[in-house]
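Q: Given only this backbone (373 positions), what sequence would you predict?
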C-alpha cells in the first residue's frame, strides 16, 4: 500500500471523462497552436484572479524571463531574488545579462525578508549596478509580504515581478495572486497546484502596454503581421492541448485548494508539538504547493520516513548563492543565514487534495517516532 507524494492519478480519475472530451475537441478542430482554448484559458485566468491581462506561455521560466525582456533588463541592472527558491528565479536574470543579487528570506514564511532586500539594494549601488527589479517568490504557495516589499520597491524605483509559480489561487491582505506588483509569473508544470500534462505558464498583469509587448515576445517578437519582427522574441506559446487540459482542471481547482487547506490544517494540528510547522500570516491564504516542516536531524528523519513508506522531498537543499553556476553573483552584505539554515532543515510532506486520513495519520505517526530522541 504505497502513498503518493502528489497524487495526480486520483485527480485524473476524477476528471478523465471531461479531459478526454476536451482533448478530442482539440483533435477535431486541429488548431494545435493558439487554438480557441488558449484565449478561453486566458479569459478564465483573468476572471478568477482579477488581473486585467493574462498572457499564457510555454512554461513558468519563460513567463518570468519574458517580463524581464519586455522591461529591457540587461547588463548593469540588478535584480533582487531570494537565495532560497527554485533556480529558475535567478536563471532568467542571468539569461538577459543582468545581475541577480541574492536576498535572505524569513524563517517562518520562507519568503523574502524586506529588510534584507533593503540592504541588498544599497549594496548593489556600491557595486555600480542599477537597481531595477525585485522578484519575490511565493514559496510553497504562500504569497510573500508584498506590502513591505512594495515599500522598499517604491523607495528605490524598483519594478516588482512576482514569482507565483507555486501560488496561483492564494491571497494576501485581501488581494489575490496575480494582482501584486507590476507582473506575476505562473507555472503549470504538472506538480504545481494548477498543473497541466506537460509544460505551461502565464503572466498576469494590469499593464496593457506590457501585455502587448509580451504577446509580441511570445511569437518571435512579432509586429503587425507574421513576418514583421520588431524585437528579439522567443517561441514561447502554450500548446492548445495543454490549455484545454487546464480549462478542465480549473473546474475543480477551488475545491482542490480547499482540500489542500484541510490537509494542511490537519497536519498542523497533529504535528505542532513534533516539528516546526509552516506558519500562514493572519491576512494570508496559501494553496499549499508544499507542506514543509523544519526538522533538526533531517537525514535521520528522512531515512525513517522512507522505511515507513512515507515519501518526503527536500525543496531546496542548496541556496542559490552557493550553487556552482550562481555563487559568483553578489549576495546581500551579512549573507543569507536563514536561507542556509532552511536548506538544511526543510522537509516537505505528502500534499494533495486526495490524501486519505489513514495516510495522513501514518505520516504524522512516523514523524512523531522519528523526531523523539
Ligand atoms: C516551478 C517554478 C518555476 C519554473 O516553472 P517551470 O514551469 O518549471 O518553468 C519558477 N519559479 C518557481 C519558484 C517554481 O517553483
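A: Predicted residues:
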Amino acid at each position: 500500500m504505497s502513498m503518493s507524494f502528489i497524487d495526480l492519478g486520483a485527480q485524473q480519475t476524477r476528471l478523465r471523462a471531461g479531459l478526454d472530451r476536451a482533448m478530442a475537441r482539440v483533435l477535431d478542430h486541429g488548431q494545435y497552436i493558439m487554438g480557441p482554448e488558449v484565449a478561453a484559458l486566458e479569459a478564465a485566468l483573468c476572471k478568477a484572479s482579477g488581473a486585467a491581462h493574462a498572457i499564457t506561455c510555454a512554461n513558468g521560466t519563460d513567463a518570468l524571463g519574458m517580463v524581464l525582456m519586455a522591461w529591457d533588463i540587461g547588463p548593469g541592472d540588478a535584480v533582487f531574488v531570494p537565495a532560497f527558491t527554485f533556480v529558475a528565479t535567478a536563471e532568467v536574470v542571468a539569461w538577459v545579462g543582468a545581475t541577480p543579487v541574492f536576498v535572505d528570506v524569513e524563517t517562518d514564511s520562507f519568503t523574502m525578508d524586506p529588510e534584507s532586500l533593503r540592504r541588498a539594494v544599497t549594496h548593489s549601488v556600491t557595486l555600480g549596478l542599477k537597481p531595477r527589479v525585485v522578484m519575490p517568490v511565493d514559496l510553497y504557495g504562500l504569497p510573500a509580504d508584498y506590502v513591505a516589499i512594495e515599500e522598499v520597491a517604491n523607495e528605490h524605483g524598483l519594478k516588482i515581478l512576482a514569482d507565483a509559480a507555486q501560488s496561483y489561487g492564494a491571497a494576501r491582505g485581501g488581494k489575490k495572486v496575480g494582482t501584486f506588483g507590476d507582473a506575476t509569473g505562473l507555472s503549470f508544470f504538472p506538480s504545481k497546484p494548477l498543473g497541466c500534462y506537460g509544460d505551461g505558464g502565464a503572466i498576469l498583469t494590469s499593464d496593457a502596454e506590457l501585455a502587448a509587448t509580451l504577446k509580441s515576445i511570445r511569437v518571435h517578437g512579432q509586429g503587425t503581421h507574421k513576418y514583421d519582427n520588431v524585437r528579439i522574441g522567443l517561441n514561447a506559446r502554450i500548446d492548445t492541448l495543454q490549455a484545454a487540459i487546464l480549462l478542465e482542471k480549473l473546474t475543480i481547482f477551488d475545491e482542490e485548494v480547499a482540500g489542500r487547506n484541510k490537509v494542511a490544517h490537519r497536519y498542523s494540528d497533529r504535528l505542532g508539538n513534533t516539528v516546526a510547522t509552516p506558519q500562514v500570516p493572519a491576512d494570508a491564504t496559501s494553496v499549499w504547493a508544499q507542506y514543509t516542516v523544519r526538522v533538526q536531524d533531517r537525514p535521520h528523519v528522512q531515512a525513517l520516513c522512507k522505511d515507513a513508506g512515507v515519501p518526503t522531498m527536500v525543496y531546496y537543499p542548496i541556496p542559490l548563492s552557493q550553487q556552482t553556476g550562481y555563487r559568483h553573483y553578489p549576495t546581500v552584505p551579512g549573507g543569507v543565514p536563514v536561507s542556509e539554515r532552511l536548506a538544511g532543515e526543510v522537509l516537505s510532506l505528502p500534499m494533495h487534495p486526495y490524501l486519505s486520513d489513514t495516510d495522513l495519520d501514518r505520516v504524522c505517526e512516523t514523524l512523531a517516532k522519528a523526531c523523539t530522541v
